[in-house]
Amino acid sequence: MSLDQQKVQQAERVYEDFEPPSDWAHDESSDTLILMLPGFKREELKVQIASTRILRLSGEREMGDKKWRQFRKEFAIPDESDTSGVSAKFESGILYINLPKHIKTQPPPTIQHPPKSTNPPPPPPPPPAPTPVAPPKKEKEKSEATTSRAQGGVSEAKIDKRSLTLELLSRQTQEYKNAVSGLVEEVKKQKKLANFIILIFLVLVFGFYVKNAMNSSLGRTKIEEL
């Protein structure tokens, strides 16, 4: 059939406009347009997407006796739909146009850091100073009394030793005087030269003895006092 014959046949056709019922089904991942097209076949339908995000659907079929039924529908594509993934399915007189939604990437959670303080942290407080524990009053007085008695005892001991030494020296001196007096009386009585010589010798020996005794006693006294 030539092109002219086709034009003649189309000019002889009588078209009846048909308004198919439609509806939308929405979910989280896509939007689906549903058209009821009973009696139509797959090859009698056209699906087009315009650059202005318009979905155009059309179709025509022969009814007989040069009568044709046709429809033309336009739908605005939702903003969240991805036109690159549009798909169509025709099944049991129903046309399904599926428009997937853009996958929204969730931004990573923002980690909020606490503001940095410019002031240095305060130094830790110093440990509390230990409280001095005073000794009990009674024990302190007792200790002082003991020390005082000990010091007094030492002083008394030194005084007693010194008195004893002086008493011994006094006794020795008195004995020396008595001995000398006795010898003198004896010499006077006997008036003998030999006895006088012996007397002098004895006096010298006794004086030497007394001197040594006194030096020894005084040396011991000084050592004990130190």
What would you say this structure looks like, in words?
Belongs to the small heat shock protein (HSP20) family. It comes from Lupinus albus. It is found in: Cell membrane. It is a single-pass membrane protein. With 226 residues, the protein is an alpha+beta fold. It has two domains: 92 residues, Sandwich (Immunoglobulin-like), CATH 2.60.40.790; 75 residues. The chain is built from three helices and eight strands; from the N terminus they run αββββββββαα. It has a four-stranded mixed β-sheet. β7 and β8 form a beta hairpin. The N and C termini lie far apart (159 Å). The mean pLDDT is 76.
List keywords for this structure.
Immunoglobulin-like; 4-stranded antiparallel beta sheet; 226 residues; 4-stranded mixed beta sheet; alpha+beta; rod-shaped; 2 domains
* Helix content estimate: 40-55%
* Share of residues in strands: 15-25%
**How is the biggest beta sheet arranged?**
4 strands, mixed
Average the pLDDT over all residues and give the rounded result: 76
- Structural category: alpha+beta
Identify the CATH class of the largest domain: Mainly Beta
Write down the Rg.
74 Å
* Measured distance between first and last alpha carbons: 159 Å
Question: Uncertain regions: pLDDT < 50 for 5+ in a row?
Answer: none
Number of strands: 8
Strand order of the biggest β-sheet: 1-6-5-4
